[in-house]
């Protein structure tokens, strides 16, 4: 491995430790210790190892100091201003991003706050049509870029933002145009491509094409059905602009101009223009640097070296912003490329000795699968950690669609170029290109609907499976290094056996005569799962966590071997109880959806949930009166207190009976709803109470608790500014003998139910 690769490894590892582990104040001292003790590397016997160790140690010291300098000079001073409302002067660095309930814009702050990159939000109507390079002034309330809901966040600082802010209403004034506005040409070009795609392509295919060409997935994320299918099938990397796109771009030029040094030189500026247009994301920069070095190697009559290329890309990203190491995009991109560099040559060499690689169909399948395996080898644990899922069908999805996606990417730019000059011809070509997109989305949706399309990364069997697989291949590699001839089929077969056992364990997660009640950790919100061996019911599905509540519920059900939900009950349609329902409907097969009647037809959330239910063939019942039903082993009483004008007091209250235990789920019902239920004699003694309104002081009143007498009280609550759960409510619950459990303290709370009503935690 080259010296640059060792230096980049030391720098990146040190920056990562500073980002996640080491105390900020101690970084200069640790760096000094590394420099002081680095001569110890000279004691190593082999000269090559001495050089590597010395380079690694000194680069690590530089990484620590670089991270500390970024924090001390930029992020730290910005944090000291958090909470203040200041008048800033800034330049727009992008276009206004418009979302359902907010807008935001990337800016460069000039004065009024710490100068640098910032992300500004606006929740009060619409911002002016800012374009990159517009100068403006505004009053902004500053908030932290490194803390989210009281916990360390790496999202914004990894993107170079030092501070976030909320633009105050009626304070933004555009003051002119920056004399350096020309530097924002890539953003304007990117926007022109997006506008052209919107103009030429049908609405069903435009989000996919836009993501493919520019890396902008905002519209694709709004299309919950497509985005969910791609994520479950494990193919979101397709729209994360990366090495595949650079390779196709160069291959297209070589097809037009022939393979030569001249073509390589022509490709270089186009690669970097494309990188700028695609937003200068970590995966884009990494791919651009590596492709550049690959193209320059023959120009200077040198061989391209994978580790050196990867190290150069790491330095280009981390030296300007060492906190970029905390970005999931950077981590996944570099892990994928490292896997390809380390494993792809060996896999192809093994296949070349055993398979007829001269057959182009065999070669296509082998190359495709080899690239998928290489890319997943190191990135899979990172993906599982961040996204909570291990996609099992990603190799098959890539095999069926990757070539089509590559052709669509190249053709997409051709269509945009033609459409810019000849709109009618461009529109006709766009209609043709829509068919490959339809094929890809049909494949992703079909694969995502299959049972066990993925494994829930949070389950113990899945964790054991991943550890087992990596241990098996690690041991095989060590044996190979020691010249012991063990066939690769041994770890492969053992891994497949481990996978089969993992799938079996999921199916047996709930045994006959047992059940599970889980209040999932969705931050400030609620999602309750009740399941036995044959049946699964979900009550509410919403929250404020970064992970969509629908994904959280689907992943949990996946861990129980479930790809079907018998019933989804939404107590009411506030976002913190229902904003994940659409995703859950697309990720699982929900037989029946129940929600209170009288929802506002103009409400966007209601319309999206209804559209998802109709698309998936889910029966919808809008509850206008109390309903009693039995679903296999679970009995349900769905009550409607109808206790006033507030939506909280008119929502559904669910009383469930399973395996001899009574569970009462109150939704956001407060004191008025409780009084209405008591008046109707609808509150029995219950074993478990999911407390109303996240433990609010206006819920779980004394008369209600005196009637319910719950043995266990569960509170679904997260970071909030409402003072929930209220101290008086907690005291009342304890007074009436309830054992308290809370998601803000424990995470997901699970209670096992056994035949005869025996409850254990």
Furnish the topology, listing elements before pairings:
Layout: H1 3-20, H2 27-37, H3 47-80, E1 85-92, E2 97-98, E3 103-111, E4 116-122, E5 134-143, E6 147-148, E7 151-152, H4 155-158, E8 161-167, E9 173-177, H5 185-200, H6 206-214, H7 218-222, H8 224-233, H9 243-257, H10 261-277, H11 282-299, H12 306-318, H13 328-354, H14 360-387, E10 389-391, H15 394-421, H16 423-448, E11 454-456, H17 460-481, H18 489-507, E12 514-519, E13 526-532, E14 536-542, H19 549-559, E15 564-569, H20 575-578, H21 581-587, E16 589-596, H22 604-615, E17 619-623, E18 627-631, E19 634-639, E20 653-658, E21 661-665, H23 671-679, E22 688-690, H24 702-708, E23 712-715, H25 727-735, E24 739-742, H26 743-746, E25 749-754, E26 758-760
Parallel strand pairs: 4-8, 14-15, 15-16, 16-17, 21-22, 22-23, 23-24
Antiparallel strand pairs: 1-3, 1-5, 2-3, 3-4, 5-8, 5-9, 6-7, 10-11, 12-13, 12-25, 13-14, 18-19, 19-20, 20-21, 25-26
Helix pairs in contact: 1-3, 1-12, 2-3, 5-6, 5-10, 5-15, 8-16, 8-21, 9-10, 9-11, 9-15, 10-11, 11-12, 12-13, 13-14, 14-15, 15-16, 17-18, 19-21, 21-22
Structural description of this entry:
The structure is a single chain. With 761 residues, the chain is α+β, with helices and mostly antiparallel strands. Among the domains are: 3-76, no CATH class; 85-179, OB fold (Dihydrolipoamide Acetyltransferase, E2P) (Beta Barrel); 328-392, no CATH class; 460-507, no CATH class; 514-756, Ribonuclease Z/Hydroxyacylglutathione hydrolase-like (Metallo-beta-lactamase, Chain A, 4-Layer Sandwich). Strand 23, helix 25 (727-735) and strand 24 (739-742) form a beta-alpha-beta unit. The longest helix has 34 residues, at 47-80. The chain is globular, with a radius of gyration of 28 Å.
